[in-house]
Amino acid sequence: MIQQQAGRRPQQQKQGPRKVIYVDLSQEQNHDPTPLLDGWQLIKADSLQMACHQLREHTFHVGMVRLGEMANGEQDELEQFFEQMPSLFWIALIDEPCIPKGVLSRLVYEYFFDYYTLPLMDHGHFLSATLGHTYGLGMLKEYERQQRQYREECQMVGASAAIMLVFRQIRKVAGVDAAVLLTGSSGTGKELIARAIHQRSRRHSGPFVAINCGALPNNLVQAELFGHEKGAFTGAHSRKTGRIEAAAGGTLFLDEIGDLPLEQQVNLLRFLQEETIERLGGTETLHVDARVIAATHVDLEAAVREGEFREDLYYRLDVLSIYVPDLKEREGDIELLANYFFRRFTEDQHCRVRGFSRQAIVAMNNYDWPGNIRELINRVRKAIVMSDNRLITPVDLGLEDLDVGHSLPTLEQVREQAEISAIKNCLLHSRNNVSSAARMLGISRVTLYRLMDKYGIAGASKMRSG
Ligand SMILES: Nc1ncnc2c1ncn2[C@@H]1O[C@H](COP(=O)(O)OP(=O)(O)OP(=O)(O)O)[C@@H](O)[C@H]1O
Description:
The chain has 18 helices and 16 strands. Strands 2-1-3-4-5 form a five-stranded parallel sheet. A five-stranded parallel sheet has the order 7-10-13-6-14. α4 links the parallel β4 and β5. The two termini are 20 Å apart. The N terminus and C terminus are likely disordered. InterPro entries: AAA+_ATPase, AAA_lid_NorR, Homeodomain-like_sf, HTH_Fis, P-loop_NTPase, Sigma_54_int, Sigma_54_int_dom_ATP-bd_2, Sigma_54_int_dom_CS. This is Sigma-54 dependent transcriptional regulator. Keywords: ATP-binding, DNA-binding, Nucleotide-binding, Transcription, Transcription regulation.
């Protein structure tokens, strides 16, 4: 769908022509493709050095290279040039006599999306469309590359629009040194997200200290968070550094913040306001520089209304907030995550089980996952061990009531699901530009707004319509 759209005449877009860099390495200066490029702004470079300069000055959507005869050294230089820009995609223009030469054919195969032989003659009018396709493919590859990068950096898997929004928010909040509140159900990945924010922040070389406020007995919370001096209470045989102090220079992750007893909330508030703490039984005031990320699965606003959570602390924690969606809200991610954990749990061992049956995938997609990703991990791990089959079945996953036979959707449901997923995909790929998403879908903007409203696809009012 993207490729077809990308191949459309770019001048239809209101953003103006897209830019293509044209690197002419042939020294011949003939066959200028400019007149053939309807809707594209062509910027020329006669050498790789000049191309590097142009690439620093402009943002290009796609690149074209005119290849001539080439010595080995020049070829290496060109390869290095391409390696520096993994997200720009290229088309080659080649003189017909050069085509059969082995060196060039490998280069074209490895680095170019497509090539045209010169003279272009009546193929010329396809060039604009090929540039569009190349750009479309480049966008997909870039999206894939970013995903891979996220996976590697944060060990986070996901491709749904809902989780991509979270990924973008992680990037944004990582660059700001303010408190973050993560809200979302249990097992959705809040701790992993807190770690990802820490890893991407300027504090990444400092410690990441996690504490589960719900798991500590009331009488220990203060000593655990703030530390204690020797003899502060019976059994305090030596001085102990608290978790807040241990997070100095890094990030303190307060999980289940809603469970923090009221009397400790005031101490935490003081730390957030003044960046100072006092150890239990101590008199010294210590300055501690730690960023706080808190997480909760309960509705803290409701807890504030009911007097169970201090309002002033709530506002101190909720400077930046990220909602982490339930697994069932992440369209397409269940299969992705299930396969990811399957590979992780089977890679180091000889395993007879080869993957998931189609019915197992359907059953997983039909299930609500109240325990979210943690539950998915447990079910997949158990199924790998217990399954007697080559492909994991719904029964192996404990989801036998949810396979395809029990819940065949109606045609109307299938149609609605297909519409929802096409709209979400196009909005994602057009970066929420409604006009361009409508064009991809082949419908008017008004119809797209109506459908978004009908299916409750969020954020319509905030979206760009350029
Ligand atoms: N996007 C993801 N990709 C891969 N693994 C994930 C992802 N999100 C969560 N996980 C894994 O799921 C499990 C649960 O995640 P995590 O502990 O971060 O959830 P949580 O929201 O903090 O849960 P709780 O509220 O119960 O503390 C962990 O093993 C985590 O590594």
